[in-house]
Backbone:
């Protein structure tokens, strides 16, 4: 099992450009999450999806959109990137039984110039 | 948004020493979790706690769910160089899918 995979690993954008961060899990988990991590700020939830077909806002959703494409995949889109979105982005998933035990991907390091 | 108060922010210790860190909140949580993040990697789950007062071990790591349900503690015994990293606590309230994370404790172990 690969667990949670994320692409790309690194990305540099110019202000105003758009991009989609991809996430996939092979653990048959129902719930998936997108976080951003900034120095000294810990992990902050952007959006989550409790099941296929549903998405909900987290703590810092502004400037982002998400799509739960199927049970395996959950993508995060930046429509018009801003320097404040420079961060490390982590995707996570959790199962039905121990739904609070989230498993994280390796992260995408995004720089917006 | 709500954050957990995690302390200390950073620790510099000698190999072989024991380490203690904690996480507190003004709110009650039903679940406490501890994660470790190595440089350039995603957080990895170390221990999950489900009951107030629960004490759980994972090798040299021991974590406790506070009796008041507003705090949790993580101890690492006989530290080794590979313990280096950032340790995060996370809490989950009843009925919520979401985790609330602390800001992390950065651990440095000198050989």
Residues:
């Amino acid at each position: 099992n690969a667990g949670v995979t994320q692409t790309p690993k690194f990305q540099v954008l110019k202000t105003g450009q758009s991009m989609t961060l991809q996430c996939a899990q092979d653990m048959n988990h129902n719930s998936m999450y997108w976080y951003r991590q900034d120095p000294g700020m810990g992990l902050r939830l952007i959006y989550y999806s409790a099941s296929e077909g549903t998405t909900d806002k987290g703590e810092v959703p502004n400037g982002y959109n998400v799509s739960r494409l199927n049970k395996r995949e959950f993508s995060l889109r930046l429509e018009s990137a801003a320097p404040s979105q420079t961060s490390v982005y982590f995707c996570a998933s959790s199962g039905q039984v121990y739904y609070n035990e989230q498993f994280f991907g390796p992260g995408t390091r995004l720089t917006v110039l | 948004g709500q954050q957990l108060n995690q302390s200390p922010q950073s620790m510099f210790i000698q190999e072989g020493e024991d380490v203690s860190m904690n996480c507190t909140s003004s709110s009650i949580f039903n679940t406490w979790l501890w994660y470790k993040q190595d440089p350039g990697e995603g957080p990895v789950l170390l221990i999950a706690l489900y009951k107030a007062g629960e004490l759980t071990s994972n090798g040299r790591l021991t974590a406790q769910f506070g009796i008041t349900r507003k705090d949790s503690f993580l101890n690492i015994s006989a530290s080794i160089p590979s313990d280096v990293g950032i340790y995060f606590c996370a809490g989950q309230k009843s009925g919520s899918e979401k985790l609330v994370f602390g800001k992390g404790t950065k651990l440095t172990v000198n050989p």
